[in-house]
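Example: Enhancer of mRNA-decapping protein 3.
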Amino acid sequence: MWDKKMGIKHRWEFKAEVTSRGDAEQQHRQSSIFGPAGLQPLFTDFSTRFTVSRMAADWLGSVVSINCGLTLGVYQGEVSSVDGASQTISLKQPYHNGVRCPVPEVTFSAMDIKELKFLDIQNTVSKPSSRHGSTTEPDFISAGHHTQSNRTSHSHATTSRLHSITAPISIPRRGSSNSRGVTVPSQKRNCVRNGGSGGSVRSKDEECFGDGTNEDLDTDFDFEGNLALFDKAAIFSQIDGSNGHKAQHHSTQTELKPQSYRHDENILEGKPVVYKQITVPQHGGKDYCTDAGLVVPSIPYKLHKRLLETAERWGLTLERRLEMIGVCSSQMALSLLGGPNRLTPKNAHQRPAVVVLCGPHTQGAHGISCGRHLANHEVDVVLFLPSFVKMEDSVTSEVRLYSRTSGLLVASVRELPASPVDLVINCLDGHENPLLKEQSWYQSAADWANRNRAPVLSIDPPVSEQPPTVEAKWTLSVGLPLPLAENESRLYLCDVGIPKLVYLEVGISYHSPFGCKFVIPLHPA
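Written out as C-alpha coordinates, the predicted fold is:
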Protein backbone atom coordinates (compact mmCIF):
# COMPACT_ATOMS: atom_id res chain seq x y z
CA MET A 1 0.00 0.00 0.00
CA TRP A 2 0.95 3.63 -0.27
CA ASP A 3 1.64 5.94 2.64
CA LYS A 4 0.77 9.33 1.18
CA LYS A 5 2.20 11.24 4.17
CA MET A 6 5.67 9.69 4.00
CA GLY A 7 5.71 9.07 0.28
CA ILE A 8 7.08 5.57 0.67
CA LYS A 9 5.71 2.44 -0.92
CA HIS A 10 5.50 -0.70 1.24
CA ARG A 11 4.82 -4.16 -0.08
CA TRP A 12 3.70 -6.71 2.57
CA GLU A 13 3.40 -10.45 2.36
CA PHE A 14 0.93 -12.19 4.67
CA LYS A 15 2.12 -15.43 6.30
CA ALA A 16 -1.36 -16.60 7.29
CA GLU A 17 -4.76 -16.04 5.72
CA VAL A 18 -6.98 -13.59 7.60
CA THR A 19 -10.44 -15.14 7.62
CA SER A 20 -12.44 -12.63 9.66
CA ARG A 21 -12.59 -9.01 10.56
CA GLY A 22 -11.44 -9.79 14.11
CA ASP A 23 -8.38 -11.62 12.77
CA ALA A 24 -7.61 -8.62 10.58
CA GLU A 25 -7.72 -6.29 13.56
CA GLN A 26 -5.48 -8.58 15.61
CA GLN A 27 -3.08 -8.96 12.66
CA HIS A 28 -3.07 -5.20 12.23
CA ARG A 29 -2.27 -4.53 15.89
CA GLN A 30 0.50 -7.12 15.99
CA SER A 31 2.04 -5.74 12.82
CA SER A 32 1.84 -2.21 14.20
CA ILE A 33 3.89 -3.26 17.26
CA PHE A 34 6.52 -5.54 15.72
CA GLY A 35 6.30 -4.66 12.05
CA PRO A 36 7.70 -7.92 10.62
CA ALA A 37 5.92 -10.17 13.22
CA GLY A 38 3.00 -11.55 11.22
CA LEU A 39 3.70 -9.28 8.23
CA GLN A 40 7.04 -9.50 6.42
CA PRO A 41 8.28 -6.37 4.63
CA LEU A 42 10.21 -7.18 1.49
CA PHE A 43 12.11 -3.87 1.64
CA THR A 44 12.38 -1.09 4.21
CA ASP A 45 14.35 2.13 4.72
CA PHE A 46 15.07 4.46 7.61
CA SER A 47 11.79 6.31 7.37
CA THR A 48 9.88 3.07 7.42
CA ARG A 49 11.68 1.91 10.60
CA PHE A 50 11.02 5.29 12.18
CA THR A 51 7.32 4.96 11.35
CA VAL A 52 7.17 1.45 12.82
CA SER A 53 8.81 2.65 16.04
CA ARG A 54 6.35 5.52 16.26
CA MET A 55 3.48 3.01 15.80
CA ALA A 56 4.89 0.67 18.48
CA ALA A 57 5.20 3.53 20.95
CA ASP A 58 1.50 4.28 20.52
CA TRP A 59 0.63 0.92 22.15
CA LEU A 60 2.63 1.50 25.35
CA GLY A 61 0.44 1.15 28.44
CA SER A 62 -1.97 -1.32 26.81
CA VAL A 63 -2.82 -4.55 28.59
CA VAL A 64 -2.10 -7.58 26.41
CA SER A 65 -2.20 -11.36 26.67
CA ILE A 66 0.72 -13.23 25.07
CA ASN A 67 0.41 -16.95 24.33
CA CYS A 68 3.85 -18.59 24.08
CA GLY A 69 2.62 -22.13 23.52
CA LEU A 70 2.36 -25.12 25.84
CA THR A 71 5.92 -24.89 27.11
CA LEU A 72 6.08 -21.25 28.22
CA GLY A 73 2.38 -20.69 28.85
CA VAL A 74 0.32 -17.50 28.74
CA TYR A 75 1.47 -14.13 30.10
CA GLN A 76 -0.58 -11.02 30.78
CA GLY A 77 0.57 -7.53 31.63
CA GLU A 78 0.98 -3.92 30.58
CA VAL A 79 3.23 -3.09 27.63
CA SER A 80 6.23 -1.19 28.95
CA SER A 81 8.54 -1.18 25.93
CA VAL A 82 8.70 -2.42 22.34
CA ASP A 83 12.00 -2.78 20.45
CA GLY A 84 11.44 -3.10 16.71
CA ALA A 85 15.10 -3.66 15.94
CA SER A 86 15.55 -6.66 18.24
CA GLN A 87 11.92 -7.75 17.83
CA THR A 88 11.15 -7.82 21.57
CA ILE A 89 8.31 -6.65 23.75
CA SER A 90 8.37 -6.12 27.53
CA LEU A 91 5.51 -6.37 30.02
CA LYS A 92 5.49 -4.86 33.49
CA GLN A 93 3.62 -6.35 36.44
CA PRO A 94 3.21 -9.62 34.49
CA TYR A 95 0.99 -12.60 35.32
CA HIS A 96 1.97 -16.12 34.27
CA ASN A 97 -0.99 -18.48 33.80
CA GLY A 98 -3.06 -16.33 36.16
CA VAL A 99 -0.39 -16.11 38.92
CA ARG A 100 1.58 -12.95 39.67
CA CYS A 101 5.20 -13.24 38.52
CA PRO A 102 7.93 -12.58 41.12
CA VAL A 103 9.82 -10.31 38.69
CA PRO A 104 8.58 -6.79 37.87
CA GLU A 105 9.16 -7.06 34.10
CA VAL A 106 9.33 -9.81 31.49
CA THR A 107 10.72 -9.49 27.94
CA PHE A 108 9.54 -11.69 25.05
CA SER A 109 11.01 -12.33 21.61
CA ALA A 110 8.76 -12.29 18.56
CA MET A 111 9.88 -15.84 17.72
CA ASP A 112 8.38 -17.19 20.98
CA ILE A 113 4.99 -15.50 20.62
CA LYS A 114 2.25 -17.73 19.22
CA GLU A 115 -0.66 -15.35 19.74
CA LEU A 116 -1.06 -11.79 21.01
CA LYS A 117 -4.40 -10.43 22.26
CA PHE A 118 -5.27 -6.93 23.41
CA LEU A 119 -7.28 -6.92 26.63
CA ASP A 120 -7.33 -3.15 27.33
CA ILE A 121 -6.16 -0.67 24.67
CA GLN A 122 -5.33 2.86 25.82
CA ASN A 123 -4.03 4.83 22.85
CA THR A 124 -3.48 8.55 23.04
CA VAL A 125 -2.34 9.84 19.64
CA SER A 126 -1.58 13.39 18.57
CA LYS A 127 -3.57 13.99 15.43
CA PRO A 128 -1.67 15.63 12.57
CA SER A 129 -2.67 19.10 11.42
CA SER A 130 -5.60 19.14 9.10
CA ARG A 131 -6.82 21.86 6.84
CA HIS A 132 -8.63 23.61 9.72
CA GLY A 133 -5.80 23.29 12.26
CA SER A 134 -4.34 20.65 14.53
CA THR A 135 -6.06 19.29 17.62
CA THR A 136 -5.03 16.69 20.19
CA GLU A 137 -7.73 14.31 21.46
CA PRO A 138 -7.38 11.24 23.65
CA ASP A 139 -8.90 8.06 22.25
CA PHE A 140 -10.08 5.18 24.47
CA ILE A 141 -10.72 1.84 22.83
CA SER A 142 -12.21 -0.83 25.14
CA ALA A 143 -12.97 -4.47 24.39
CA GLY A 144 -16.71 -4.97 24.03
CA HIS A 145 -17.52 -1.65 22.25
CA HIS A 146 -17.92 -1.33 18.49
CA THR A 147 -16.36 2.04 17.56
CA GLN A 148 -14.99 3.58 14.41
CA SER A 149 -12.15 6.14 14.04
CA ASN A 150 -11.56 8.41 11.08
CA ARG A 151 -8.22 9.74 12.28
CA THR A 152 -5.18 10.00 10.00
CA SER A 153 -1.81 9.13 11.50
CA HIS A 154 1.73 8.17 10.49
CA SER A 155 1.13 4.56 11.50
CA HIS A 156 0.03 1.85 9.17
CA ALA A 157 -2.85 0.98 11.55
CA THR A 158 -4.55 4.37 11.29
CA THR A 159 -4.61 4.60 7.51
CA SER A 160 -7.90 2.72 7.45
CA ARG A 161 -10.98 2.67 9.63
CA LEU A 162 -10.56 0.75 12.89
CA HIS A 163 -13.47 -1.39 14.03
CA SER A 164 -12.87 -2.79 17.51
CA ILE A 165 -13.94 -6.36 18.04
CA THR A 166 -15.45 -8.17 21.00
CA ALA A 167 -12.63 -9.89 22.88
CA PRO A 168 -12.77 -11.83 26.13
CA ILE A 169 -11.65 -9.90 29.20
CA SER A 170 -9.15 -12.01 31.13
CA ILE A 171 -9.07 -11.28 34.87
CA PRO A 172 -5.81 -12.38 36.55
CA ARG A 173 -6.04 -14.60 39.60
CA ARG A 174 -5.48 -12.82 42.87
CA GLY A 175 -2.15 -13.88 44.36
CA SER A 176 -2.72 -12.09 47.70
CA SER A 177 -5.18 -9.78 49.38
CA ASN A 178 -3.23 -6.70 48.21
CA SER A 179 -2.76 -7.67 44.57
CA ARG A 180 -5.50 -6.53 42.26
CA GLY A 181 -4.11 -7.73 39.01
CA VAL A 182 -3.82 -5.39 36.01
CA THR A 183 -6.46 -2.68 36.27
CA VAL A 184 -7.30 0.46 34.32
CA PRO A 185 -5.77 3.56 35.90
CA SER A 186 -8.14 5.92 37.62
CA GLN A 187 -7.06 8.78 35.37
CA LYS A 188 -8.39 6.90 32.36
CA ARG A 189 -11.71 6.15 34.09
CA ASN A 190 -12.10 9.81 35.03
CA CYS A 191 -11.68 10.68 31.40
CA VAL A 192 -14.63 8.47 30.58
CA ARG A 193 -16.76 9.77 33.44
CA ASN A 194 -16.11 13.44 32.69
CA GLY A 195 -17.39 13.36 29.17
CA GLY A 196 -14.42 12.23 27.17
CA SER A 197 -14.85 10.23 23.97
CA GLY A 198 -16.80 7.11 24.81
CA GLY A 199 -17.94 8.48 28.18
CA SER A 200 -21.60 8.11 27.29
CA VAL A 201 -21.19 4.42 26.52
CA ARG A 202 -19.35 3.43 29.67
CA SER A 203 -18.86 -0.33 29.94
CA LYS A 204 -20.97 -2.15 32.52
CA ASP A 205 -18.12 -4.54 33.04
CA GLU A 206 -16.00 -1.68 34.42
CA GLU A 207 -18.73 -0.83 36.90
CA CYS A 208 -18.85 -4.44 38.05
CA PHE A 209 -15.13 -5.29 38.06
CA GLY A 210 -13.61 -1.87 38.89
CA ASP A 211 -11.32 -1.06 41.80
CA GLY A 212 -14.18 0.33 43.85
CA THR A 213 -15.78 -3.10 44.25
CA ASN A 214 -12.51 -4.88 45.02
CA GLU A 215 -11.78 -2.76 48.10
CA ASP A 216 -14.45 -4.58 50.13
CA LEU A 217 -12.98 -7.99 49.40
CA ASP A 218 -10.25 -7.51 52.03
CA THR A 219 -12.87 -7.33 54.80
CA ASP A 220 -14.02 -10.70 56.15
CA PHE A 221 -17.74 -11.34 56.16
CA ASP A 222 -19.23 -11.41 59.68
CA PHE A 223 -21.27 -14.63 59.62
CA GLU A 224 -22.10 -14.60 63.34
CA GLY A 225 -23.27 -11.01 63.30
CA ASN A 226 -25.53 -11.54 60.30
CA LEU A 227 -26.87 -14.78 61.74
CA ALA A 228 -27.77 -12.99 64.97
CA LEU A 229 -29.96 -10.61 62.97
CA PHE A 230 -32.20 -13.51 61.90
CA ASP A 231 -35.17 -13.93 64.25
CA LYS A 232 -36.47 -17.45 63.71
CA ALA A 233 -39.47 -17.04 66.02
CA ALA A 234 -40.62 -13.92 64.20
CA ILE A 235 -40.29 -15.62 60.82
CA PHE A 236 -42.37 -18.59 61.96
CA SER A 237 -44.97 -16.20 63.35
CA GLN A 238 -45.21 -14.47 59.98
CA ILE A 239 -45.55 -17.81 58.22
CA ASP A 240 -48.32 -18.98 60.52
CA GLY A 241 -50.14 -15.67 60.13
CA SER A 242 -50.57 -12.40 61.90
CA ASN A 243 -53.14 -13.86 64.29
CA GLY A 244 -51.65 -14.29 67.76
CA HIS A 245 -53.74 -17.41 68.36
CA LYS A 246 -52.11 -19.19 65.45
CA ALA A 247 -48.66 -18.23 66.64
CA GLN A 248 -49.43 -19.50 70.15
CA HIS A 249 -50.86 -22.72 68.74
CA HIS A 250 -47.70 -23.27 66.71
CA SER A 251 -45.52 -22.67 69.79
CA THR A 252 -47.58 -25.14 71.85
CA GLN A 253 -47.37 -27.82 69.16
CA THR A 254 -43.62 -27.29 68.90
CA GLU A 255 -43.16 -27.85 72.61
CA LEU A 256 -45.32 -30.99 72.70
CA LYS A 257 -43.91 -32.60 69.55
CA PRO A 258 -40.70 -34.63 69.95
CA GLN A 259 -37.74 -33.44 67.96
CA SER A 260 -37.49 -36.52 65.76
CA TYR A 261 -38.68 -40.11 65.39
CA ARG A 262 -36.76 -43.21 64.50
CA HIS A 263 -37.86 -45.49 61.68
CA ASP A 264 -39.20 -48.05 64.20
CA GLU A 265 -41.08 -45.56 66.42
CA ASN A 266 -44.78 -44.75 66.19
CA ILE A 267 -46.08 -41.21 66.21
CA LEU A 268 -49.27 -42.23 68.00
CA GLU A 269 -48.77 -43.23 71.61
CA GLY A 270 -49.74 -46.80 72.47
CA LYS A 271 -49.85 -48.94 75.54
CA PRO A 272 -46.70 -49.34 77.59
CA VAL A 273 -44.50 -52.14 76.32
CA VAL A 274 -44.14 -55.16 78.60
CA TYR A 275 -40.73 -56.68 77.96
CA LYS A 276 -41.09 -59.67 80.28
CA GLN A 277 -43.82 -61.61 78.47
CA ILE A 278 -42.66 -65.16 79.25
CA THR A 279 -42.98 -66.64 82.73
CA VAL A 280 -41.88 -70.15 83.65
CA PRO A 281 -42.68 -72.32 86.69
CA GLN A 282 -39.04 -73.41 87.06
CA HIS A 283 -36.36 -70.92 86.22
CA GLY A 284 -33.07 -72.12 84.79
CA GLY A 285 -31.05 -69.40 86.49
CA LYS A 286 -30.26 -67.24 83.45
CA ASP A 287 -32.19 -64.62 81.52
CA TYR A 288 -31.60 -63.56 77.94
CA CYS A 289 -33.00 -60.70 75.87
CA THR A 290 -33.69 -60.27 72.18
CA ASP A 291 -32.70 -57.39 69.93
CA ALA A 292 -36.09 -55.80 70.64
CA GLY A 293 -35.50 -55.99 74.40
CA LEU A 294 -37.89 -58.87 75.19
CA VAL A 295 -36.78 -61.06 78.09
CA VAL A 296 -36.46 -64.80 77.40
CA PRO A 297 -35.83 -66.95 80.50
CA SER A 298 -33.93 -70.21 80.49
CA ILE A 299 -35.51 -73.46 81.69
CA PRO A 300 -33.95 -76.64 83.11
CA TYR A 301 -33.58 -79.71 80.90
CA LYS A 302 -36.38 -81.69 82.64
CA LEU A 303 -38.94 -78.95 81.91
CA HIS A 304 -37.63 -78.67 78.36
CA LYS A 305 -38.01 -82.45 77.84
CA ARG A 306 -41.57 -82.40 79.25
CA LEU A 307 -42.44 -79.54 76.87
CA LEU A 308 -41.30 -81.54 73.82
CA GLU A 309 -43.14 -84.68 74.98
CA THR A 310 -46.37 -82.67 75.41
CA ALA A 311 -45.95 -81.25 71.91
CA GLU A 312 -45.52 -84.78 70.48
CA ARG A 313 -48.70 -85.89 72.21
CA TRP A 314 -50.61 -83.06 70.45
CA GLY A 315 -49.19 -83.95 67.01
CA LEU A 316 -45.82 -82.21 66.77
CA THR A 317 -43.98 -85.48 66.22
CA LEU A 318 -40.25 -85.99 66.27
CA GLU A 319 -40.14 -86.14 62.46
CA ARG A 320 -41.82 -82.72 62.24
CA ARG A 321 -39.45 -81.29 64.82
CA LEU A 322 -36.41 -82.71 63.04
CA GLU A 323 -37.55 -81.08 59.81
CA MET A 324 -38.11 -77.70 61.46
CA ILE A 325 -34.72 -77.81 63.19
CA GLY A 326 -33.05 -78.90 59.95
CA VAL A 327 -34.59 -75.99 58.01
CA CYS A 328 -33.78 -73.36 60.65
CA SER A 329 -30.22 -74.57 61.27
CA SER A 330 -29.45 -74.85 57.54
CA GLN A 331 -30.83 -71.33 56.97
CA MET A 332 -28.58 -70.04 59.73
CA ALA A 333 -25.61 -71.93 58.26
CA LEU A 334 -26.25 -70.48 54.81
CA SER A 335 -26.22 -67.00 56.29
CA LEU A 336 -22.95 -67.71 58.07
CA LEU A 337 -21.44 -68.98 54.82
CA GLY A 338 -22.11 -65.68 53.04
CA GLY A 339 -25.73 -65.92 51.94
CA PRO A 340 -26.51 -64.38 48.54
CA ASN A 341 -23.01 -62.95 48.23
CA ARG A 342 -21.48 -66.44 48.23
CA LEU A 343 -24.18 -68.71 46.80
CA THR A 344 -24.68 -67.27 43.30
CA PRO A 345 -24.63 -68.93 39.86
CA LYS A 346 -21.54 -66.88 38.94
CA ASN A 347 -19.67 -68.31 41.94
CA ALA A 348 -20.25 -72.00 41.19
CA HIS A 349 -16.51 -72.75 41.16
CA GLN A 350 -16.18 -71.70 44.82
CA ARG A 351 -18.96 -73.61 46.53
CA PRO A 352 -18.69 -73.65 50.35
CA ALA A 353 -17.59 -76.83 52.13
CA VAL A 354 -19.28 -77.94 55.36
CA VAL A 355 -18.51 -80.89 57.65
CA VAL A 356 -21.32 -82.20 59.92
CA LEU A 357 -20.20 -84.26 62.93
CA CYS A 358 -23.09 -86.43 64.25
CA GLY A 359 -23.60 -88.96 67.02
CA PRO A 360 -26.07 -91.88 67.22
CA HIS A 361 -28.85 -89.94 69.01
CA THR A 362 -31.57 -87.38 68.43
CA GLN A 363 -29.12 -84.47 68.33
CA GLY A 364 -27.22 -86.38 65.64
CA ALA A 365 -30.47 -86.63 63.66
CA HIS A 366 -30.71 -82.83 63.87
CA GLY A 367 -27.32 -82.56 62.17
CA ILE A 368 -28.21 -85.09 59.45
CA SER A 369 -31.37 -83.13 58.61
CA CYS A 370 -29.35 -79.91 58.45
CA GLY A 371 -26.76 -81.53 56.17
CA ARG A 372 -29.50 -82.74 53.81
CA HIS A 373 -30.90 -79.21 53.39
CA LEU A 374 -27.41 -77.77 52.85
CA ALA A 375 -26.67 -80.36 50.17
CA ASN A 376 -29.91 -79.41 48.43
CA HIS A 377 -28.60 -75.81 48.26
CA GLU A 378 -25.46 -76.82 46.34
CA VAL A 379 -23.16 -76.93 49.38
CA ASP A 380 -20.38 -79.52 49.50
CA VAL A 381 -21.36 -81.51 52.62
CA VAL A 382 -19.35 -84.24 54.33
CA LEU A 383 -21.36 -86.09 57.02
CA PHE A 384 -19.45 -87.97 59.72
CA LEU A 385 -21.43 -90.71 61.50
CA PRO A 386 -19.68 -93.66 63.17
CA SER A 387 -20.88 -97.16 62.36
CA PHE A 388 -23.17 -98.69 64.97
CA VAL A 389 -24.99 -101.99 64.92
CA LYS A 390 -28.17 -100.41 66.22
CA MET A 391 -29.22 -96.78 66.08
CA GLU A 392 -32.41 -94.85 66.76
CA ASP A 393 -35.14 -94.98 64.13
CA SER A 394 -34.99 -91.21 63.62
CA VAL A 395 -31.26 -91.41 62.81
CA THR A 396 -31.76 -94.33 60.42
CA SER A 397 -34.54 -92.59 58.50
CA GLU A 398 -32.55 -89.35 58.21
CA VAL A 399 -29.48 -91.22 56.93
CA ARG A 400 -31.59 -93.02 54.32
CA LEU A 401 -33.01 -89.69 53.12
CA TYR A 402 -29.57 -88.02 53.15
CA SER A 403 -28.13 -90.79 50.95
CA ARG A 404 -30.26 -89.48 48.05
CA THR A 405 -28.32 -86.19 47.98
CA SER A 406 -24.88 -85.38 46.55
CA GLY A 407 -23.35 -85.22 50.04
CA LEU A 408 -20.72 -87.65 51.28
CA LEU A 409 -21.14 -90.00 54.27
CA VAL A 410 -18.00 -91.13 56.10
CA ALA A 411 -17.57 -93.28 59.22
CA SER A 412 -13.87 -92.62 59.94
CA VAL A 413 -12.09 -89.43 60.93
CA ARG A 414 -9.31 -90.23 58.44
CA GLU A 415 -11.80 -89.68 55.61
CA LEU A 416 -12.53 -86.11 56.71
CA PRO A 417 -10.92 -83.24 54.73
CA ALA A 418 -7.36 -82.45 55.72
CA SER A 419 -7.64 -78.80 54.64
CA PRO A 420 -9.76 -76.24 56.51
CA VAL A 421 -13.41 -76.05 55.50
CA ASP A 422 -15.85 -73.14 55.66
CA LEU A 423 -17.99 -74.41 58.55
CA VAL A 424 -18.16 -77.30 61.02
CA ILE A 425 -21.54 -78.29 62.50
CA ASN A 426 -21.20 -80.12 65.80
CA CYS A 427 -23.91 -82.60 66.82
CA LEU A 428 -21.72 -85.09 68.69
CA ASP A 429 -23.17 -84.49 72.17
CA GLY A 430 -26.47 -85.95 73.39
CA HIS A 431 -28.64 -85.12 76.39
CA GLU A 432 -29.23 -88.69 77.56
CA ASN A 433 -25.83 -90.41 77.31
CA PRO A 434 -22.88 -88.29 78.53
CA LEU A 435 -20.54 -91.33 78.46
CA LEU A 436 -20.10 -91.00 74.70
CA LYS A 437 -17.27 -88.52 75.32
CA GLU A 438 -15.09 -91.37 76.56
CA GLN A 439 -15.26 -93.35 73.31
CA SER A 440 -12.40 -93.20 70.80
CA TRP A 441 -14.45 -92.10 67.80
CA TYR A 442 -15.82 -89.14 69.78
CA GLN A 443 -12.37 -88.00 70.91
CA SER A 444 -10.94 -88.37 67.40
CA ALA A 445 -13.77 -86.31 65.87
CA ALA A 446 -13.45 -83.61 68.56
CA ASP A 447 -9.66 -83.41 68.02
CA TRP A 448 -10.17 -83.01 64.26
CA ALA A 449 -12.69 -80.21 64.82
CA ASN A 450 -10.33 -78.35 67.17
CA ARG A 451 -7.38 -78.73 64.76
CA ASN A 452 -9.40 -77.49 61.85
CA ARG A 453 -9.44 -73.70 61.71
CA ALA A 454 -13.07 -73.50 60.58
CA PRO A 455 -15.72 -71.90 62.85
CA VAL A 456 -18.09 -74.29 64.65
CA LEU A 457 -21.89 -74.19 64.98
CA SER A 458 -23.37 -76.40 67.74
CA ILE A 459 -27.01 -77.51 67.50
CA ASP A 460 -28.93 -78.12 70.76
CA PRO A 461 -25.92 -78.90 72.98
CA PRO A 462 -26.54 -80.39 76.45
CA VAL A 463 -26.07 -78.62 79.76
CA SER A 464 -22.73 -79.50 81.33
CA GLU A 465 -20.69 -78.15 84.19
CA GLN A 466 -17.50 -79.03 82.34
CA PRO A 467 -16.22 -76.91 79.43
CA PRO A 468 -17.33 -78.15 76.01
CA THR A 469 -15.04 -80.54 74.17
CA VAL A 470 -15.43 -78.63 70.89
CA GLU A 471 -15.28 -74.83 71.15
CA ALA A 472 -18.26 -73.41 69.28
CA LYS A 473 -18.59 -69.91 67.91
CA TRP A 474 -22.39 -70.14 67.57
CA THR A 475 -24.92 -72.19 69.53
CA LEU A 476 -28.52 -72.92 68.44
CA SER A 477 -31.13 -73.79 71.08
CA VAL A 478 -34.65 -75.18 70.49
CA GLY A 479 -37.89 -73.64 71.81
CA LEU A 480 -36.56 -72.07 75.02
CA PRO A 481 -32.86 -71.84 75.92
CA LEU A 482 -31.12 -74.05 78.44
CA PRO A 483 -28.81 -72.58 81.10
CA LEU A 484 -25.60 -73.18 79.17
CA ALA A 485 -22.15 -72.52 80.57
CA GLU A 486 -20.63 -69.06 80.18
CA ASN A 487 -18.34 -68.97 77.14
CA GLU A 488 -17.63 -66.88 74.08
CA SER A 489 -20.26 -68.67 71.99
CA ARG A 490 -23.12 -66.58 70.61
CA LEU A 491 -26.52 -67.98 71.47
CA TYR A 492 -29.40 -68.24 68.97
CA LEU A 493 -32.94 -69.52 69.48
CA CYS A 494 -34.91 -71.62 67.00
CA ASP A 495 -38.72 -71.73 66.69
CA VAL A 496 -39.98 -75.28 66.07
CA GLY A 497 -43.70 -74.39 65.97
CA ILE A 498 -44.88 -75.34 69.47
CA PRO A 499 -48.37 -73.85 70.02
CA LYS A 500 -49.04 -71.35 72.79
CA LEU A 501 -51.47 -73.61 74.66
CA VAL A 502 -48.88 -76.39 74.73
CA TYR A 503 -46.58 -74.04 76.64
CA LEU A 504 -49.46 -73.18 78.93
CA GLU A 505 -50.12 -76.87 79.60
CA VAL A 506 -46.68 -77.29 81.18
CA GLY A 507 -47.12 -74.06 83.18
CA ILE A 508 -45.32 -71.61 80.87
CA SER A 509 -47.04 -68.31 80.03
CA TYR A 510 -45.66 -67.77 76.54
CA HIS A 511 -45.67 -64.93 74.03
CA SER A 512 -43.56 -65.47 70.92
CA PRO A 513 -40.35 -63.39 70.91
CA PHE A 514 -39.51 -64.31 67.31
CA GLY A 515 -41.48 -61.61 65.51
CA CYS A 516 -41.07 -62.15 61.76
CA LYS A 517 -38.13 -64.57 62.05
CA PHE A 518 -37.64 -68.22 62.93
CA VAL A 519 -34.09 -67.80 64.29
CA ILE A 520 -33.22 -64.87 66.58
CA PRO A 521 -30.08 -63.97 68.54
CA LEU A 522 -30.14 -63.88 72.35
CA HIS A 523 -27.98 -61.69 74.54
CA PRO A 524 -27.21 -62.07 78.25
CA ALA A 525 -29.63 -59.91 80.26
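The chain has a mean pLDDT of 76.
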